[in-house]
Amino acid sequence: MRANSTTTATIGAVVGALGVVFGDIGTSPIYTIQTVFNPDDPHPVPISTDNVYGVVSLIFWSVMIIVTFTYVTLVLRADNHGEGGIMALITMLGRGVERRTVAALSLLGIFGAALFFGDSMITPAISVLSAVEGVKVIQPQFDSWVVPITAVIIIALFSVQRHGTSAVGRFFGPVMIAWFTAIGACGALGIADHPEILKALSPVYAIKFMVGHFHFAFFSLAAIVLAVTGAEALYADMGHFGRRAITSGWLLLVLPGCTLSYLGQGALVLGDPKTASAPFFLLIPDWARLPMVLLATAATVIASQAVITGAFSVASQAAQLGYLPRLRIAHTSESTMGQIYVPWINGLLLVSVLTLVFTFRSSAALAFAFGMAVTGTITITTTLFLYIAHTRWKTPLWLIVVGGGVLLTVDLMFLAANLTKLVHGAWLPLLIALVAYTVMTTWQRGREIVTRTREEAEGPLREFVDSLAAHEHPVTRVAGTAIFLNRGKHSAPLALRANVEHNHVLHEHVVVLAIVTLPVPRVPESERNEVDALGYAKDGIIHVTAQFGYMETPKVREALSLLEPSETEGRIDLDDASYFLSKLELVRGSAPTMAAWRKRLFIATSYATADAAEYFGLPSESTVIMGSRIEV
């Protein structure tokens, strides 16, 4: 029975991964070959028998090298306590000993995360547009309806985010299984008509295409990279499904389905070069085109859902690690960890995606922009992985140089090809990434300045407690428990100092609570709290450090409920406790801490900060907020 249960659980994880992880990469066959042979491309690839073989072969081997080898075989092994994604890589870098190198790579990783935000904006636009464009193949007069229909679908998609994906998640896997089965079957039909296309599986044709026609083959890489869009999702969602489930789903269904589709489309173009305008939909029998358009739309919505969820996760992790302000986060599933909704990010993505749809108006126009975000993220992930493999796993340097050099050469070739599309739309994801990177690094720097200034105003915690014991601050002790939230262990909370110095009141039992985010995804409950009596536990004052992982939302009451009575002498009453928060008003000062424009950006970004009481799960009726002004 145990073996059967394990098998069932494994199958369930694979189905779940198919529904969430592979949506983006699984819908790439809709537009990849069409984009390669797009006559409006600044560097079009002429349609000929040799070029079709070369393009299909180059697509297949690009997928094998970047997705199957780099991500599935190598990068998925670099997990941070089971979690993946570029933010997990950044936290793993923090354990290195070469500080300058780690700092530089961390900044590179942050730029990779910023590129992912650009990917999160472009993916829903290009995916849904490409699927809806299938109606033009059925009825060309529906061309004018493509953009409005796409906009309606996108608005509906973002409108339901607040309800979470748990209610519909169980349907995602079967839909994607149907999708990969359908595109594989259609591809097999195309191969049956022109079986000679199977020769494209040989890497010889990819090499001959690149070497013999480099003057346009190099530029074609900017479109061929579309075949590996979504590779980062395999790594980012590893924590939800596990490496085994993702690897199984990729090798058993996704890779075969996509490969058959690419080969079938290549066979179709060999038979009739005119079909290069829409090879994916023209490969489908007439009677099945409308159902396939509907299935493609469902698949692209799922692909969009996956990348939107990924953006929520990256934003949440970035906030936990101090690169973004504390954002309001809603957990949308009581049973599934990691399903979250971030309203501020959701609104930003909705406006951005609609802007892209109405500006570019076609998937072909957006394709030039799409590749830049993908290649940038892949190159940065490979670089960070190679550093971790050498420093943590002690992989020999010669192997890193030789093997890693080959992988990075492939990545950099794709990146260089996309840089040639800067004036044609590739500037867009770079601009989005630059803005996001500037916001995140400015917030990190401003947060350091505010923390330092705040600690100077607060003064040492132990000295403050000593002054209470020495009666330097005559206070009235009142019954009850007061919990003062603080940034760390060494300074006195501003709210505590103000309460004593201005109100001359102190509760009978006082807890100074610091919330610490560790560079791990989650912290076991047994390791949640660290208690320090500060030498004055008999006077009812203790310090508690509550530790959370960067994937968790800190809940104060839940953390304090884990304290043993022996640690607090049984004197903390959470049901009747009062919570004190220090609220800071940030103002631009004259000190040369940052450039004036960065100070304004930091203060503007602070307005997105979520309400602290709500974020930490504090009861509003027993929470007291005391304000202070700090110059940046």
UniProtKB/TrEMBL annotation:
Superkingdom of the source? Bacteria
Pfam families recorded:
K_trans (PF02705), K_trans_C (PF22776)
Q: Which reaction does it catalyse?
A: K(+)(in) + H(+)(in) = K(+)(out) + H(+)(out)
Q: Does the keyword Cell membrane apply?
A: yes
Keywords from the UniProt entry:
Cell membrane, Ion transport, Membrane, Potassium, Potassium transport, Symport, Transmembrane, Transmembrane helix, Transport
Q: Give the membrane topology, semicolon-separated if more than one.
A: Multi-pass membrane protein
Where in this chain does the record put each K+ potassium transporter integral membrane domain? Answer: 14-466
Q: Name one GO cellular component term.
A: plasma membrane
Residues forming the K+ potassium transporter C-terminal domain are 480-631
Spans traversing the lipid bilayer: 52-76, 102-122, 142-160, 172-192, 212-236, 248-270, 290-319, 340-360, 366-389, 396-416, 422-443
Does Transport appear among the keywords?
Answer: yes
Molecular function (GO) terms listed?
potassium ion transmembrane transporter activity; symporter activity
Location relative to the cell: Cell membrane; Membrane
Its family remark reads: Belongs to the HAK/KUP transporter (TC 2.A.72) family.
Q: What does this protein do?
A: Transport of potassium into the cell. Likely operates as a K(+):H(+) symporter.
From the Swiss-Prot or TrEMBL record, give the protein name.
Answer: Probable potassium transport system protein Kup
Q: Which organism is it from?
A: Mycobacterium asiaticum
